[in-house]
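Work Package 3 committed the consortium to producing structural models of liganded targets before the mid-term review. Because experimental data for this complex are still outstanding, the team generated a predictive model from sequence and the ligand definition alone, so that downstream docking and mutagenesis planning could proceed in parallel. The input record is reproduced below exactly as it was submitted to the modelling pipeline, together with the SMILES string for zinc ion.
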Amino acid sequence: MDRPRITIFDTTLRDGEQSPGCSMNVQEKLHLAQQLDRLGVDVIEAGFPIASDGDFEAVQRIAALVRRPIIAGLARACKGDVDRAWQAFQGAARPRIHVFLATSDIHLKYKLRITREQCLEQARDAVRHAKTLCSDVEFSPEDATRTDVAFLCQVVEAVIAAGATTVNIPDTVGYTMPEEYGNLIRTLREKVAGIGEVTISTHCHNDLGLAVANSLAGVQQGARQVECTINGIGERAGNASLEEIVMAMRVRPDRYRYETAVASEHLYPASQMLAEITRVPVQPNKAITGRNAFAHEAGIHQDGMLKNPLTYEIMTPQSVGVPDSRLVLGKHSGRHALALRCEQLGHKFERRELDEIYRKFVVLADRIKKVQDSHLLELIQDVSRGGVNVSNSDDAVQSKKFPPAAASLPFPRAASAAAGANPNESYPAQVSRGAGQSQVRPSCPAPANWFGGVSVPRTDHHSEQEDYLWGV
Ligand SMILES: [Zn+2]
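The resulting structure, written out as tokens with the ligand in place, is given here.
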């Protein structure tokens, strides 16, 4: 039986861009949009056209350049917003107008100062108007998870009747729980007339760390579109992480019998590109794309990994575009990993020599946490020079060749000890902050030439968007 296809709606350029420090200029958005196209996402939400001239231009240029995926533009539920979004889509291959309006009582009362009846009417009118312009219309009842369920059903039914083709159910404030969110999707499917004719979508925020779990719960109850972002960036704690959603389905098809069109080997390059553009590093332990996601330091793990990667890896680094996993050489590393790294550096040792190197290595690793190739080469040279019977063999380790970690390696780069790994390859966004240290610019292994070698000036248009820093 065919697996249901899940539409991946990427909102890195809209919701993601709203997160602090993640604003992007038009050129940067264009480059990222092209990477999202390579990644195979179905929908790219390119911006909020009425929010600023920069957003308008970004949507317009992305829609003109990127032709395969649907390009969505956000609009509040009013004629001016919808018209502006549509203007940005002139010449677009597959445009979508995404209309949103808050529906929870707390938003109606304090933010919009309208009644439920006015809300219902405004939502219906805006969708009806959008439909006169564009056949593909999505509607989002903002703060849906804190909206009275009966009223939510009423609004969803009204916008479907008005022509919406996708109904998105945002957990705008990251408040819901997986079972609760799944139940909400099921209730909508049971109670709303016409819902079988439209696509139900999830849009979950990560304030309680449940955005991915909630999205998957929604999918299990019939949602067929997931809104998400690269690296999970987005308002406050962020959105559901695209890479985690995609890989959860790919690694556990026994539990999640769905498929996406995402080419997973482009996940890591997309993550790197975003980190490079925004200068916001990926947290090291971030699932799938963090620099430690495939790093193994503990000796027993490294030993197992070298014998068979399946002992500790549920997916291969290559499957998500990471060139190889990292065996970090630290004080927990074993002889096996050390010997392999030495071999990769061109030095094969007898047991006694290796014991000597290992002993020095452990002393060093205790001081500098991560032993890099340059340090290891110094140790090797030392042992080669002095032979294995040198009595004061710790001299080198204690010497000034290896200054203390705090001064020399504030954020040491992980040495790679995996078979075939490129020792020169590095993870990005490690910025040295040590006194007198030159700044280590983030480097980017895979798609290194997004800007074609030309540096793109950064402009910050975020201030223009102050009034629009809310959405679904
Ligand atoms: Zn959002």
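Reviewers should note the following from the model. Residues 15, 170, 172, 203, 205, 234-235, 239, 471-472 surround zinc ion (CB under 6 Å). These observations will guide the Year 2 experiments.
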